[in-house]
Specification:
Elements (H helix, E strand, L loop, with lengths): L1 H12 L3 H10 L4 H11 L11 H8 L3 E3 L5 E3 L2 H11 L29 H15 L14 H16 L3 E5 L7 E7 L2 E9 L3 H18 L3 E8 L7 E7 L2 E9 L7 H4 L1
Parallel strand pairs: 5-6, 6-8
Antiparallel strand pairs: 1-2, 3-4, 4-5, 7-8
């Protein structure tokens, strides 16, 4: 795993002509990022249309491909990671609020240096609640995907602090995005989605359990962002097919409260 992590870090951090040319072009139009986030967030959202300049360019660079049902699928998660990094604000204004006062990320390590991922994600859930409508003030970020962006930034900052590595996978090509954390020889898998109903929520947990089995990991984490007008927060732990799944349904504020509501 150490050699794999080292190789992956190099791919995520290196500068090469193909990646540089890709990033230069997509920075001209934020719709590239929006299209990619739609692909990883919604199962059937983006038709593969070769006559679309954006779809054609992403396919030309090998970022996406056409699925058997003519829907877009992510073909290169490393490029996806680099694109999201390229669009991520250098400062989102909420970094100091990630952890409660007088604490830091190191409290989420055990005495033998293992990540306490459950406690780390509990704090992320609480951070979103603490931040409230301020998450809508994060610059240059599509509001539909603000939860996933903040989870990515939160884990990325923590993993960097503890000298770990993080990368993305899109196991089914679309409809889900997994954040893979590597640290001191252990792998942690955090799947993230947008709420699309109870049936898909339950189905997603089964898919995650199957993915954990193929990866030889016993525990996984499932973070679903709830954008409904009346969200229903939920935190639960279950055993599915011999794998432990810790699930979070995290409400995401949709609009800043009016002045009347603040009185």
């Amino acid at each position: 795993m150490a050699h794999f992590a080292e190789a992956h870090i190099q791919l995520l951090d290196e500068r090469n002509t193909n990646i540089e040319h890709l990033l230069t072009n997509i920075r001209k139009n934020r719709r590239f990022e929006t299209i990619l986030m739609q692909i990883v967030s919604y199962e059937n959202s983006v038709q593969f249309n070769p006559d679309s300049d954006i779809i054609n360019e992403l396919a030309t660079y090998g970022v996406i491909t056409k699925g058997t049902d003519r829907k877009c699928e992510i073909a290169n998660p490393i490029y996806l990671h680099r694109i999201i990094q390229a669009f991520k604000p250098i400062v989102n204004g909420l970094e100091r609020d990630y952890f409660p006062e007088d604490t830091d990320g190191f409290q989420y390590l055990t005495s033998d240096g293992q990540i306490q991922m459950e406690q780390l994600l509990n704090n992320f859930r609480d951070f979103i609640a603490r931040a409230g409508f301020r998450i809508l003030q994060v610059p240059e970020t599509p509001q539909e995907f603000i939860g996933q962006h903040l989870l990515f930034a939160y884990l990325d900052q923590f993993v960097t602090t503890v000298n770990g590595a993080m990368y993305m996978e899109v196991p089914t090509g679309r409809g889900r995005m997994d954040l893979i954390v590597l640290h001191t020889g252990r792998k942690y898998i955090v799947e993230t989605k947008i709420w699309r109903g109870e049936r898909l929520y339950t189905e997603g947990k089964r898919h995650l359990a199957a993915y954990l089995s193929t990866e030889g990991v016993m525990e996984g984490y499932y973070v679903v962002f709830d954008h409904r007008e009346v969200p229903k927060p939920r935190t639960e732990t279950e055993t599915i097919d011999g794998r432990t799944i810790r699930s979070y349904v995290v409400p995401v504020v949709q609009e800043r409260p009016s002045r009347e509501n603040l009185r």
